[in-house]
Specification:
Length: 152
């Protein structure tokens, strides 16, 4: 009986301090922040194409990806990414920028443990499962494709 009273008090406390968010408001913020991020990336790609028209499309895409990864890491280091994430929610975690933020955050958090055992190792504790799941599910999708189409 004592446990249930304690649990009810705790649940009431959690309910009172949890910020109230509207679903539509959160969706709107995710849409415009994610959309703005994509527009900036497209603009960066267009600038690269204008400056280096002789490069192939694949190389321009790679340069653009590297640039937005570097920007996400810089924004994480300077604390801007947290501000953007608080406002934009899921819109700030587009796969490439969210992945860069996760790795940079973990590296910064564990830098006191040293370059190798802190920064270099701990950054993969957060993103390691993402890498493993990406590899596993890509292999599964490839096998399904082979089974359906009868070949590569």
């Amino acid at each position: 009986m004592e446990k249930s009273k304690r649990n009810k008090r705790y649940n009431a406390y959690v309910e009172s301090v949890t910020p109230k968010t509207g679903t539509w408001h959160s969706l709107w913020n995710a849409l415009w922040v994610g959309g703005l991020t994509c527009m900036i990336a497209q603009g960066i790609g267009d600038i690269y194409y204008a400056l280096f028209p002789h490069l192939g499309k694949d190389l321009i895409v790679n340069f653009t990806s590297m640039t937005i990864i570097a920007l996400a890491i810089l924004f994480t280091g300077f604390g801007f990414f947290d501000v953007i994430a608080r406002k934009g929610g899921a819109g700030s975690f587009l796969p490439i920028t969210g992945f860069a933020n996760a790795m940079a955050s973990a590296s910064m958090e564990f830098k006191t443990e040293g370059l190798i055992m802190g920064t270099s190792v701990k950054m993969f504790t957060v993103v390691g499962p993402v890498i493993v799941n990406g590899i596993v599910w890509s292999a599964v999708a490839g096998m399904i494709n082979v089974l359906i189409t009868g070949g590569i």
